[in-house]
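Sequence, structure tokens quoted for completeness.
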Amino acid sequence: MANPLADCVSSLRSSNHLLGNSISILDSGVNDFPRLAKVLQTTKHFELLPSSALSDAQSQLLSSLIPEFDSLLSRVETHLDRLERREQALIARCELLDGRLSVSGEDGEAMRGDGTFSRKSIAGEGDGSREALKLKQLRARKERLGYTVERLGLQAQQKERQLRLSVAAQ
């Protein structure tokens, strides 16, 4: 009788050993699950969208970009207008200064930048021409005042343009 029990015990031991091996195999497989989950995870690199969703997105993008483009274009236009006005003012100033230089060069007088005559021109005139010298000084003063009036007129025109542009922009 001991022999049939020994066979049962040996069968039980072999089953126990087989279960132990199965548990160790399952344990090594379970330990690798996080890596396997990451490896087997599917990722969508390119997602297909219906054409209606794509056209809606394009129209939303277009509707948000058009006002930005319009505002940028208006800013560029105002800046260009400002630069054009500045260019015109500089051209007018250049013409004014050229006119001043040509007038003082035509008279052949030694006139300083402030419009007064230098001592060399006064000493060269002599005693009898004080009235002529006074007359020349008055003419120079008249020219300076004329240039000042012209400059102020140009400034007034420029301010009028700026005022018109600011009213038109509002």
Observations:
- The chain is about 85% helix and 0% strand.
- The helical segments are 2-31, 33-40, 51-107, 119-125, 130-169.
- The CA atoms of residues 73 and 131 lie 62 Å apart.
- Residues 118-125 have pLDDT under 50 and may be disordered.
